[in-house]
Design goal:
The protein is an alpha/beta fold and 226 residues long. Helix content is 54%, strand content 11%. The protein has a four-stranded parallel β-sheet, sandwiched between helices. The protein has a three-stranded mixed β-sheet with strand order 3-5-6. Helix 4 packs across helix 5, helix 5 packs across helix 6 and helix 9 packs antiparallel against helix 10.
């Protein structure tokens, strides 16, 4: 939430704290609940899953681009979090698996929303129902991620991408996010009206003036993010 409102931050990078992006839920902690009363099981998991939702909402609202930088495993909710980012770059040795079916449950963390929209309903069904593991290149070929970094270059490639985005017209990126995510639910007429509103909002800002001047002067624009 701090990143969301900090105007000094113009790009956000999400990484795992260790050797993996996110290896999914704590299965050992789940085992402590399996013998509990059904109502306790339900209430516990409802609360746990809802605890993740503010992160999903914040990522969607974030008025600046979010890059997921994936190393090692992205499993279960790790796939969900990566899919919720605006762009995803992965080490070529990284791997992905939705894996929920392998522990006898259905997906959470917004993957049921994002995955069918990224790869199509049939491919999403295959990924979810079979629970297979697939490589970063396979994820890119399916449309789940954007870039695959050669082994050992993920940090550099991520940084280069983040800097490129951070030097861009941040407010424009925020409006573009609003447009694209709204398009998943909007009617045609509503979307076109929103396009007009977003364009006009950008046109009254400093980065639009700079972009026009740079185009005319045939130079690289120096965007300030506002």
């Amino acid at each position: 939430h701090d990143l969301e409102v900090d105007t000094g931050v113009r790009c956000v990078v999400m990484k795992g704290a260790g050797d993996n992006f996110m290896a999914g839920g704590d299965i050992k902690s789940f085992s402590n609940l399996v013998d509990a009363e059904p109502d306790k099981i339900r209430n516990t998991f409802i609360n746990r899953i809802h605890d993740l939702h503010p992160i999903m909402f914040a990522m969607r609202r974030m008025p600046k681009p979010i890059v997921a930088s994936v190393e090692g495993a992205a499993a279960g909710a790790g796939v969900s979090v990566a899919l919720a980012a605006d762009l995803v770059i992965a080490d070529e040795k990284a791997f992905f698996t939705l894996a929920y079916c392998r522990i006898g449950t259905s997906p959470d963390g917004s993957s049921s929303f994002h995955l069918p929209r990224a790869v199509g309903i049939k491919k999403a069904m295959e990924i979810a129902l079979l629970g297979d593991r697939f490589t970063a290149q396979e994820a890119k070929d399916m449309g789940m991620i954007n870039f695959v970094a050669p082994a050992g270059t993920l940090d550099k490639e991520t940084r280069d991408l983040a800097i490129r985005l951070a030097e861009g017209p941040t407010h424009v990126y925020g409006n573009t996010k609003k447009l694209f995510y709204a398009s998943l639910e909007s009617e045609f007429e509503t979307q076109l009206q929103m396009e007009a509103e977003m364009f006009s909002d950008c046109a009254k800002r400093n980065d639009f003036q700079e972009g026009i001047a740079a185009f005319i002067d045939k130079r690289k624009p120096d965007f300030k993010g506002n």
